[in-house]
Amino acid sequence: MFRLHRLPPAPDEIYSSSLATFHEGHALWYPEPHESGEPQIGDVGFIHRGAFIRLFNLDTSAPEKKVTFWPVPFDDIKPLPPHVLQIDRRHRPLVPDHYCSHGMESKEIHASVDATAGASMSLALTAAYKCKSTQSAVLALKSEAHAETLFENQVLENYIVRNHDTWYTYATGVLGHRLKQENLVVICGWVKTEADWAAAAFSNISSSSHVSVEGNAGGVAGMELGGSHSKSVTGPRMQRQGRHYLPDASHPCPVEPTRDQCMFVKRYGVRKRLWIFKKIVASADYHQLLDMDDGRSGSGGKGAIAQEEDNLIGANVLELESEVRLSL
Q: Region Disordered: what ranges (predicted)?
């Protein structure tokens, strides 16, 4: 008898949802720079199978951010309002350590001093975890991470709302991407580190699963990621690692640190919803942005909305979303 079995979530979906509790943004299963370029603040693009795909960048004053990957470039970028790309820089929001999602139970942790990597001693961490959830993830960093995030700005949010339809037409109509409108996003922040990370994702665990992480948290060598399970795992245990995670003579680590691995991205997205005027009038703030060019008659101001409040007429409202968790 033919039966349909629902596939477990993809590793990139498990990984991003499991690490969302760190509030650093959307965790990328593929943090390496895509062929379209390294993620930058002001990028317009989308996430595909755990990687961020750049379409174009809104900052036309920075030639290094220009995207040349696509056969037809986007050349209808409206000028940004002044001073909307003010950046909040944070050093070491994530230090060399093992970061586990909810449901990972620590079985043992101990530290030791390692002087073999050089003249200066460094701390080596060893940890073993037991997964007690249906899905979970682990991120191991050997180098510190740095973060940049835009300050929340109402002017920028309104700019995104006004232009999002044009960007979506380019992505789907010109380039032909099969893409939901809310999945076309603007990058407003990132967390980056060097290419010496490791990641693991677990799904559909029917009994219990174990993962052990060993490594030199302050050096460049000796970190390992492994796992086992006691009975059965109905879904796969997937893992990835950066280029310099394990010592490799053919790919020596650069002398100067290169933080081009984008572990997390923060995003603005726009979604169209059918709302009722009464609710808009009662709770509208700068996070609920009314599209004034949606074809309705009238001036579209507060007076017009108040007059139609009792009619409870539906309207398309553009809703701004981001990892900043804007109130709606």
A: 228-252
Amino acid at site 20: A
DSSP β-bridge partners for residue 243: none
Q: Which amino acid is at 150?
A: L
Instruction: State how far the alpha carbon of 80 is from the alpha carbons of 42, 122, 155, 159, 288, in Å.
Output: 10, 46, 10, 8, 21
Which pair of structure tokens corresponds to residue 220?
Answer: 């460049």
Residue-by-residue DSSP string for 169-215: HIIIIIS-----GGG-EEEEEEEEE-S-EEEEEEE-BSS-EEEEEEE
Q: Which residue has the tokens 């796969």?
A: 236
Contact yes or no for 67/46 (Cβ under 8 A)? no
Please report which helix (H) or strand (E) contains residue 281, including its range.
helix 277-283
Q: Which residues pair with 293 in a beta bridge?
A: none
Note the pLDDT of residue 9.
85
Supply the pLDDT for residue 323: 56
Which tokens in the block code for residue 175? Answer: 């380039």
The C-alpha atoms of residue 106 and residue 131 are separated, in whole angstroms, by 9
Chunk the chain into consecutive blocks of 10 residues (it has 328) and report each block's average pLDDT, rounded to whole numbers. 69 95 96 97 98 98 96 97 97 94 67 42 52 84 96 94 96 98 96 94 61 49 49 65 73 77 95 58 43 43 41 48 44
All residues at 6 or more sequence positions from 233 whose CB lies less than 8 Å from its CB, including other chains: 202, 204, 205, 206, 207, 209
Q: How far is CA 232 from CA 5, 132, 206, in A?
A: 18, 13, 6
Residue 245 is predicted with a pLDDT of 77
Q: What is the pTM of this model?
A: 0.73
